[in-house]
Design goal:
This protein is an alpha+beta fold. The protein has helices at residues 11-14, 59-66, 79-86, 95-98, 131-134, and strands at 20-25, 31-36, 39-43, 48-52, 68-73, 103-104, 113-114, 119-127, 136-146, 156-160, 163-166. It has one domain (7-183): Electron Transport, Fmn-binding Protein, Chain A (Pnp Oxidase, Chain A), CATH 2.30.110.10. It has 5 helices and 11 strands. It holds the Pfam family Flavin_Reduct. InterPro entries: Flavin_Rdtase-like_dom (IPR002563), Flavoredoxin (IPR052174), Split_barrel_FMN-bd (IPR012349).
Amino acid sequence: MLHELPAEKAYRVLESGPIVLVSTRASDGRANLMTMGFHMMMQHDPPLVGAVIGPWDHSHQALSETGECVLAVPTVDLAETVVDIGNCSGDALNKFAHFGLTPAPAQTVDAPLVRECWANLECRVTDDGWARRYNLWVLEVQRVCIDTAREETRLIHHQGDGRFSVDGDTLDLAERMVKWRYLMDR
């Protein structure tokens, strides 16, 4: 039996990428965090990420002003904090301090890394042409840092409407990726 969802719920089927925290630093020096589930890899070389950040997000202004951010990838142990970060605004709250997260200096951007996250991707806006129309920013990844000492590495994936899935077993089919072998780093 097939169950039909309204078209506006398409994200519940397609958006299963890991939740990220977007870290920005405004021109006045204030750092902010926001939770984001709507993002996608766009290409490998250069590494481009599409990210939906609209004017309803406090981080939008900082991204517009500075053209840079960090995409911090939290693990399942931070799931409740990640949801709570998404339920408040940085216009009146220092989210790093309030949620006990540690800002760390990045090497290529002024926005801070999030020390408690498994991975941090330093990004610069490479194309904002779609931002005015679709709130879609094209970010070029400048640097990726992975915390290899971190024991918890399971990522959380947004399924919409407050539902999440957690990484589980990995299915490794790298040997079958013959057409794309040049992209693999083994």
